[in-house]
Design brief:
four-stranded antiparallel beta sheet, mainly beta
């Protein structure tokens, strides 16, 4: 495998009734890391997020991830930069055993209401391999130059 080859997980997608007619998540450029998720709100009933409020935005999709993979739900940089809209729990993690609808928690950090229409791109989805840790309880940890120095201990 060369540096440019990558593993591509097969993601099984089930379109829910309110997601009919919407595009599946798609990569906008050949080297994009994230694919866009779209809002599955009714065409005649857009969702509005007031300043300082949050909303759970439906995508109309349920997925099945392969064992050993997660899907991260991340903000779209354009929404954050231009409208102060971001994902509240970024990155949100969808586990491989979850089978419910994928929803996006958006928050409006701006000073104007934000309207979400059917099909609007509301988040990026990034797929990543997962390794579960094995924990080994010990009496002491090895010393390092940093030691217990935490928040801000290596500079601002």
């Amino acid at each position: 495998m060369t540096n440019f080859e990558r593993v591509q997980p097969l993601i099984r997608v089930m379109r829910l009734p309110h997601g009919e007619g919407l595009a599946l998540p798609a990569y906008e450029t050949p080297l994009a890391a994230g694919c866009d998720a779209r809002a599955a709100v009714p065409a005649d009933a857009p969702m509005t997020i007031a300043p300082g409020e949050r909303a759970l935005v439906p995508t109309g999709l349920a997925i099945a991830l392969p064992h050993g993979w997660e899907m991260q739900v991340r903000p779209r940089s354009g929404l954050a930069a231009k409208r102060a809209i971001t994902c509240l729990n970024a990155p949100g993690t969808v586990d491989a055993d979850y089978r419910g609808e994928v929803k996006v928690i958006l928050i409006n950090h701006g000073d104007a209401p934000f309207e979400i229409n059917r099909g609007d791109r509301v988040a990026q989805l990034v797929f990543a391999p997962v390794h579960q840790a094995v924990f080994d309880e010990v009496e002491a940890l090895d010393d390092t130059a940093r030691g217990a120095g935490g928040f801000g201990s290596t500079g601002v």
